[in-house]
Specification:
The chain is of the alpha+beta class. About 35% of the residues lie in helices and about 20% in strands. The strands form four sheets. It has a five-stranded antiparallel beta sheet with strand order 2-1-11-10-9, sandwiched between helices.
């Protein structure tokens, strides 16, 4: 690991000097195929690997879904019912929200963000004024408004590989949702229980194990996975008093995206004065 450590320090040195650096493949410590790390206050780029590449983003999509729901101003206490239309017939993913389940919009939004519940995300879009098609148009309109020129959305869940973006575009989305306290709070909620009408209780956990780690100050989080996208992770976290946004796309290995986040934080903490100039 010594060579990757020295290489990463070189990355930081060159970035602070104003140069874009791409680490040689044999020395790159990152397991994710595309990485972008930025100080949100200074906008200083702290790490850049294939950040302009357009890739499937899986359930990172749900951050845009949440933003559209939040900005629509619909009553969060309104009841939403899961229907046959919300069943995933593309990948046949599982869900504990059976057809006929009713929850309020608030709980649906929480489950979509915290536990990446696909039926909840799809139902939220169905209940948008104008329905699913209007919701998807709103997603793409918002992407253009945010300057996400290399992003496209075709569904509210991320199950389609045609939902694509770049790490640089996703930083723009992170900045937007990071300004919404409700979305922030729901993405880092560790555990939530919902009670169904039949009296049954369902317990959901956050898909990002770092939000439960007391050594981390995660302010915003979303994970994602489909085969075409690999394992993905986006976060805003506090490092030595600075808000740092991280994007990791197409990471191979169950824990590799978490490992990449840990590696980034460790390097920044060791070299914070240099990295944050």
């Amino acid at each position: 690991m010594l060579r990757p450590l020295r290489t990463f320090f070189t990355v930081l040195t060159l970035l602070v000097s104003g140069f874009a650096f791409v680490a040689p493949a044999q020395a790159d410590p990152m397991r994710s195929e595309a990485v972008f790390v930025q100080d949100l206050k200074s906008t200083k780029v702290l790490y850049d690997k294939n950040s302009k590449d357009t890739r499937p983003i899986a359930s990172i999509t749900k951050l845009m879904t949440a933003l559209i729901v939040a900005e629509a101003g619909q009553d969060l206490q309104t009841t939403i019912t899961i229907s046959d239309d919300d069943i995933d017939r593309l990948r046949h993913s599982r869900s504990r929200l059976a057809v006929g389940t009713t929850l309020n919009r608030d709980n649906m939004l929480l489950l979509a963000l915290m536990s990446s519940e696909n039926r909840a995300a799809h139902a939220l879009a169905r209940y948008y004024p104008g329905g699913l098609s209007a919701f998807i148009r709103a997603m793409n309109d918002k992407a253009r408004e945010l300057g996400m020129r290399h992003s496209r959305f075709v569904d509210p869940t991320g199950l389609s590989a045609d939902n694509v973006s770049t790490p640089r575009d996703l930083i723009k989305l992170l900045k937007a949702v990071n300004e919404n306290p409700l979305i922030q709070r729901y993405t880092v909620n560790e555990r939530h229980q919902v009670k169904l009408k039949n009296g049954r209780a369902l317990v959901y956990n956050n898909t990002n194990r770092l939000v439960k780690n007391d050594d981390w100050a995660v302010q915003l989080s979303k994970t994602g996975f489909i085969n075409e996208a690999g394992r993905c992770l986006v976060m805003v976290t506090r490092i030595d008093g600075r808000d740092v946004a991280m994007v990791f796309l197409n990471s191979q290995g169950r824990y590799s995206r978490i490992g990449d986040a840990v590696r980034v934080r460790n390097y920044l903490e060791k070299n914070i004065n240099l990295a944050m100039l």
